[in-house]
C-alpha cells in the first residue's frame, strides 16, 4: 500500500533541504534611544546577530526556520518571516518577478477562489540596503475576502519572505504596520570578545 506524502507549498523551507540559513529563534532584548527603551528581537546568522523591532503589541512565536507575528484582537491576521535557499545570487529582473508572482498565487489555501494579483511593486521598502519585491493578492476563502502580501528579499544564498495575511477590511492598516517594521531589520557587526547584551531567549512571547 502506497503512502501519500503531503503537498508542500513553496513559500516555506523544503523539508528535504539541509539548509543552515538564519536562526529565527527569537531572543528578546532592548535598545535605548534618548532615554526611551525600545524592545527588540534578535535572530542569528552564523556569527552575526540581526535586530528587529516588531510592531508594538504584536505577539510572536518562532523557531529556527521562521517566526510569526499576530496583532492583538484581530482574528485571522498574521505576519510571518521565512526563508528558502538560493542556489545562486538572484536579481529581481522581469522573469524572476513573474516567477515570484506565480509562486505567491500557488501558495494560497487549496480552497481559495477568485484569486488575483492586485499589486506588484519593486522596492516598496529597502531592508538594510537590500532591494525587495512585493506581490499582493486577493482571494475568497469560504465567506471571507482576504488579502495576502509577500515581500521578497535576496541575500547571496538565502531568499527571505515577509508574508502578511488578513481579511480585506483589516488588511491595509495592519499590512502597513508590518511592512514599516521591516525597515528596522539590521545585520549587526559581531560584538567584540567579552561584550554581552542582556537578552532572554524565548520561543514564544510570554503573557
Task: Provide a quick synopsis of the model.
With 207 residues, this protein is mainly beta.
Describe this structure in words.
- This protein has 207 residues and is mainly beta.
- The protein is built from two helices and twelve strands; from the N terminus they run ββββββαββββαββ.
- It has a single domain (23-190), classed as Mog1/PsbP, alpha/beta/alpha sandwich (Protein Transport Mog1p, Chain A, 3-Layer(aba) Sandwich), CATH 3.40.1000.
- The protein has helices at residues 94-106, 168-182; strands spanning 23-33, 36-45, 48-52, 59-62, 67-70, 78-85, 113-122, 132-141, 144-154, 158-167, 186-187, 200-201.
Can you tag this structure with a few keywords?
207 residues, mainly beta, Protein Transport Mog1p, Chain A, 7-stranded antiparallel sheet, 5-stranded antiparallel sheet, 2 helices
Fold topology:
Layout: E1 23-33, E2 36-45, E3 48-52, E4 59-62, E5 67-70, E6 78-85, H1 94-106, E7 113-122, E8 132-141, E9 144-154, E10 158-167, H2 168-182, E11 186-187, E12 200-201
Antiparallel strand pairs: 1-2, 1-12, 2-3, 3-11, 4-5, 5-6, 6-10, 7-8, 8-9, 9-10
Amino acid at each position: 500500500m502506497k503512502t501519500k506524502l503531503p503537498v508542500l507549498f513553496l513559500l516555506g523551507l523544503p523539508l528535504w533541504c539541509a539548509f543552515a540559513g538564519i536562526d529565527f529563534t527569537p531572543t528578546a532584548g532592548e535598545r535605548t534611544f534618548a532615554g526611551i527603551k525600545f524592545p527588540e528581537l534578535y535572530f542569528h546568522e552564523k556569527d552575526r546577530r540581526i535586530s528587529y523591532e516588531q510592531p508594538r503589541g504584536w505577539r510572536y512565536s518562532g523557531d529556527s526556520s521562521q517566526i510569526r507575528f499576530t496583532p492583538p484582537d484581530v482574528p485571522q491576521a498574521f505576519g510571518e518571516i521565512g526563508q528558502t535557499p538560493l542556489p545562486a545570487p538572484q536579481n529581481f529582473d522581469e522573469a524572476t518577478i513573474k516567477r515570484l508572482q506565480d509562486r505567491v498565487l500557488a501558495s494560497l489555501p487549496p480552497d481559495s477562489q477568485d484569486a488575483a494579483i492586485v499589486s506588484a511593486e519593486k522596492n516598496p521598502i529597502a531592508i538594510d540596503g537590500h532591494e525587495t519585491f512585493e506581490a499582493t493578492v486577493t482571494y475568497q476563502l469560504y465567506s471571507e475576502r482576504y488579502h495576502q502580501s509577500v515581500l521578497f528579499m535576496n541575500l547571496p544564498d538565502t531568499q527571505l519572505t515577509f508574508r502578511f495575511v488578513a481579511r480585506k477590511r483589516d488588511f491595509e492598516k495592519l499590512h502597513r504596520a508590518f511592512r514599516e517594521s521591516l525597515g528596522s531589520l539590521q545585520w549587526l557587526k559581531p560584538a567584540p570578545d567579552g561584550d554581552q547584551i542582556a537578552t532572554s531567549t524565548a520561543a514564544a512571547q510570554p503573557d
